[in-house]
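User: Please fill in residues for this 95-position structure.
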């Protein structure tokens, strides 16, 4: 009788699948972020080359020079997360 009041997703077997779904969703989301930020990063690098080419020997403005840094930092964190995924799933299978 009392088990009827417990939300179905808190039952141990359902919680296991809920956690698995969240993990799959997270890794797909992070992979998509990594993929699209890589395009933004590439655009900022190309912008640097264009600014250097059009600058007639002058340095491009600071915001152009440093614009690849933010996407690169995002790529580093999301990339390191992606790197750990196969090891994390192997570790989970073993335990
Ligand atoms: C900064 C450090 C970076 C790290 C640590 C990193 C790491 C990774 C890892 C581990 C993967 C997954 C590989 C797999 O499928 O097993 C990946 C995928 C990928 N990386 Fe990076 N990456 C970095 C930077 C970059 C940069 C600079 C670019 C391009 C401008 C880039 C573009 C991509 C793309 C397009 C994928 C495939 C994404 C997909 O599967 O949809 N990454 N990266």
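Assistant: Residues filled in for all 95 positions:
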């Amino acid at each position: 009788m009392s088990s009827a009041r417990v939300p179905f997703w808190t039952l141990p077997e359902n919680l296991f699948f809920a956690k698995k779904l969240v993990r799959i969703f997270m890794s797909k989301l992070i992979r998509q972020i990594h993929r699209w930020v890589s395009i933004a990063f590439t655009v900022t690098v190309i912008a640097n080359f264009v600014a250097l080419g059009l600058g007639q020997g002058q340095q491009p403005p600071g915001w152009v020079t440093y614009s690849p840094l933010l996407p690169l930092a995002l790529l580093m964190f999301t990339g390191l997360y992606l790197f750990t995924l196969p090891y994390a799933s192997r570790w989970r299978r073993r335990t």
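For context: The longest helix spans residues 12-54.
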